[in-house]
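INTERNAL AUDIT FORM
Audit reference: QA-55
Scope: verify that the stored structure record matches its stored sequence.
Auditor: D.O.
Record contents follow.
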Amino acid sequence: MHENEGPIVPQKTVHARITEEIVAAIAAGAPEFEMPWHGSGLQRGRPVNAASRIPYRGVNILALWIAAEKKGFHTGTWATYRQWSALDAQVRKGETGSLIVFFKEIERRARVEETGEETTENYLVARASWVFNADQVKGWRNPPVTQSNPPQVLAKAEAFIQAIGADIRTGADMACYFPEQDYIEVPDRERFIGTATSSATESFYATVLHELTHWTGHKRRLDRDLSTRFGNGAYAMEELVAELGAAFLCADLGVTNSPRSDHAAYVGNWIKVLGSDPRAIFLASARAGAAVDYLTGLQPGPRAMTH
């Protein structure tokens, strides 16, 4: 051991410390969680128009969130049929649109009874419009994002992820693991940005490691319940497991030196879903530790993450 190195600490003890720090951050009031990539989808952010890149407003936000949840869409990008055509994309045959409302300004001429003079007045008329989600079209891909501080490539983390051999596909609007097909989707690396709570590099690797923790829950691996829908207790528990797994792995791989505040904020949100059950985070921590052990066991040679 080099002189500047601390004592070797068992890995599970490190994970327990991280869990305790996240609990402390939640108790102290973790900041609002920010999703670490451009774009939006479902509960991850506001729906965005593919043509203008402007987020939808007002009641249309709720309408498109509900439509995406009901129809199982994994992207928050929408446009009308004509807008998709202008973007050289084609709405698939048989797809149905989702209803939104827009307001059009109408100019109307009126005559003043007292003077007989003509005047003009403007008023807003509500019009219905139908939009299609990016999941319903073919031939479209998110435009590349240029930023001044893109995510760095961390050799240790890259080698760890590659050694696992999971099917990870890029180019999506949001990150997601599909247990039935057993693959992971993530946005392109350059779409990850720094936020008030993390750097672009931390955001990218934390997201991939979060989805890899979900990947361990497949029935052929650790066989956790991955079949539940958004918002219920089992779903919340699995999200706790995945985010704690990401926190553990970020520390193990040197992506972060300590748990990021957005780990705590994300975990805190799901604890609320579980009714503030004080046991939830510790049960999730144990499952996350088992997931990390599984992923570590897929690495070549001796255990790569001992402390």
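Auditor finding: record pair retrieved intact. Residues 11-37+142-297 form one domain.
Action required: none
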